[in-house]
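User
Please review the sequence:
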Amino acid sequence: MNIYDVIKKPVITEKSTLEKDARNVVTVSVNPSANKIQIKEAAEKLFNVEVKFVRTVNVAGKVKRVGRNIGKRSNWKKAYITLNAGSNIDFFEL
């Protein structure tokens, strides 16, 4: 699997921003078939950082309705990437 196919996009929420500031943990959306080793290698190559470890979560899609029609959002996978002390990833860097 290509490293550009592993990491899809950053997850920017209030919780992920607090984790980044407090514990140097970056949250990203990843390919559901990617494992922790592939995520670690992709993050180290793409962002030029040192990764301590990776935790993953399979997020279930929510059931939504519009009127009487019911639909379901897609399931997706989220990764919490813990960086070493000297490393930093800034998604809003100019």
Summary: The chain has a mean pLDDT of 94. The helical segments are 3-6, 14-23, 36-47.
